[in-house]
């Protein structure tokens, strides 16, 4: 039931559907071409290591955890944001869109994927869901435990529901974390490239 509820939450509005489709489309775009994979590997292997790179998978799982894992791989967690993979994503798409080693169609697709990632709305949506995943994650793990205590499970569900409702009121935390992430990402982009790229803060 929890899986269905969270899955529904990730498809409840246009912003959510657009965001998770964007993550899926990026993964698909990179993985369908050895040349694109080579561009990605060249960027990321010295920054995040091969093992972490391998965890960037398609959102193909039926459980909500597949969506959560993909989002946290790119943005980090709500409590501990990390812009390393996100910056590599930006630079990879930028590189492909500007390189004459790729055909015009591929370059156009890369540019089309890049633009939404440079919008603050995308980052804000990411952190809205990272907040949800943070609160639901431990509950989900416990509910899959063999021989779980029903009373404890019920109390955990109640606690998660109360916390999510209270956090929806305190949206400034989400906004502040998103702003911090953007500033961190933009600073890293400036350090690593001369190309004029930045996530716009609106």
Description:
The structure is a single chain. The chain has 202 residues and is mainly α. 73% of the residues lie in helices and 0% in strands.
Strand and helix order: HHHHHHHHHH
Instruction: Report Rg.
Output: 18 Å
Largest sheet: none
Shape: elongated
Quaternary class: single chain
Total helical segments: 10
Helix content: over 70%
Distance between the termini: 37 Å
The percentage of residues in β strands lies in under 5%
Report the count of strand segments.
0
Helix vs. strand class: mainly alpha
Poorly predicted segments: 58-62
Short descriptors:
202 residues, 10 helices, mainly alpha
Summarize the structure.
The protein is mostly helical and 202 residues long. The chain is built from 10 helices and no strands.
Write the layout of secondary structure elements.
Layout: H1 2-9, H2 14-31, H3 34-44, H4 50-54, H5 64-75, H6 84-98, H7 104-117, H8 120-143, H9 150-169, H10 172-192
Helix pairs in contact: 2-7, 3-6, 5-8, 6-7, 6-10, 8-9, 8-10
């Amino acid at each position: 039931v929890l899986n269905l509820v969270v899955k529904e939450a990730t498809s409840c509005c246009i912003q959510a559907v657009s965001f998770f489709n964007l993550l899926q489309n990026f993964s698909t775009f990179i993985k369908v071409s050895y040349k694109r994979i080579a561009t990605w590997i060249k960027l990321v292997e010295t920054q995040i290591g091969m093992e972490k790179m391998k965890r960037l998978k398609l959102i193909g799982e039926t459980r909500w955890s597949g969506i959560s894992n993909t989002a946290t791989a790119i943005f980090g967690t709500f409590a501990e944001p990390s812009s390393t993979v996100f910056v590599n994503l930006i630079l990879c798409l930028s590189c492909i869109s500007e390189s004459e080693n790729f055909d015009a169609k591929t370059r156009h697709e890369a540019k089309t994927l890049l633009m939404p990632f440079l919008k603050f709305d995308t980052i804000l949506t990411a952190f809205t869901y990272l907040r949800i995943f943070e609160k639901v994650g431990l509950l989900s793990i416990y509910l899959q435990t063999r021989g779980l205590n029903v009373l404890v499970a019920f109390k955990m569900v109640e606690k998660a529901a109360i916390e999510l409702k209270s956090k929806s009121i305190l949206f400034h935390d989400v906004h502040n974390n998103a702003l911090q992430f953007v500033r961190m990402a933009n600073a890293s982009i400036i350090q690593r490239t001369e190309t004029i790229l930045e996530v716009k803060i609106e």
